[in-house]
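Q: Sequence in, structure out?
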Amino acid sequence: MTYGELKKNDTIIFHGAKVRIISVLHKTSNDGEPWTGFEIEPADDEAVEILGNYYSHGWYGGNDSLEVERA
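A: Exactly. Output:
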């Protein structure tokens, strides 16, 4: 799946950790490209071990064509 296909409550593999999408913002960037921002929380205890407490929560984003693996 791509960033552009993300929806609230999706569970994905993000930098090797299983995280849950808790909020999604689809918009167009300043250069006219589709862009998606998403807020994550750990889907399991291992996610905090992999990403750390800081990086396992928060907002991330990128061009809608970027790919991510569904967990």
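The chain has a mean pLDDT of 96.
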